[in-house]
Write a structure and sequence with these properties.
By secondary structure, the chain is an all-alpha fold. About 80% of the residues lie in helices and about 0% in strands.
Length: about 40
């Protein structure tokens, strides 16, 4: 199946960017938490 480039970009911006932002925030929070808690 062939999709126009604009459709792919629109889909990525609609679905993947929020997920990437949430995952990045979770990774940053996990990193900060791991640094602040003494092992």
């Amino acid at each position: 199946m062939e999709y126009p480039f604009a459709v792919i970009v629109q889909w990525l911006s609609d679905y993947l960017l929020p997920l990437v932002r949430i995952l990045a925030m979770l990774m940053v929070m996990a990193g900060i938490g791991a640094r602040n808690v003494p092992s």
